[in-house]
Write a structure and sequence with these properties.
Among the domains are: 55 residues, no CATH class; 47 residues, no CATH class. 19% of the residues lie in helices and 15% in strands. The strands form 2 sheets. A two-stranded parallel ribbon has the order 1-2. A two-stranded antiparallel ribbon has the order 3-4. Helix 2 links the parallel strand 1 and strand 2. It is flat and about 60 Å long.
Amino acid sequence: MSNNIKRMPVFRGRFGTRSKRKKTNPKWNKWRYPRGIDISWRRGDNQMPKIGFGCDKKRKALHPSGRKEVYIRNLKDLQNFIEKNKDIKNFIFRMASKLGKKKREEIKKFCDKHKLRVINIFEKKIEPEKDNIKIVKKNDDVKKVSK
C-alpha cells in the first residue's frame, strides 16, 4: 500500500498564493470553485480539482485504520450484520449520533463480548464534585453555611 498511494496537490482555494487573502486564515484557505468575473484563475493559484485526483477505488470506503466502516443504528443491525458476515475482524462499526445512553451501553457490552471495534463510544464524563456550601444573604450580610 505504500507505493500505490496517489500524491495529491494542495487545492488552496480561490486566491491561492496571493497576498490579498492570507493563506493562514482558514476562511480563505478552503476550496471554493472560482465563479464570476471578479475571481479569475491565475497561474499561482495552484491546480483545480479534477476527476483524476480522487482516491483509489479500493481505499474509498475504508476507515483510516484500513478496515471497512459499517453504520449501526441499533443492536439488531449489529447482530444481523454479524450473522451475514463471517470475517468480522476486517470491519469497524460506527454508531448513529442520535443513539441514547442505554442503547450505546448495550452495543458496547455486545462489542466487548464479541471483541468488535466500535469507533464512537462516548464514555460517561465525570464531573467534579461541588462543595456543599450554601450562601445566605440577610440584610446585606453574606454568610457561608455548610450543609
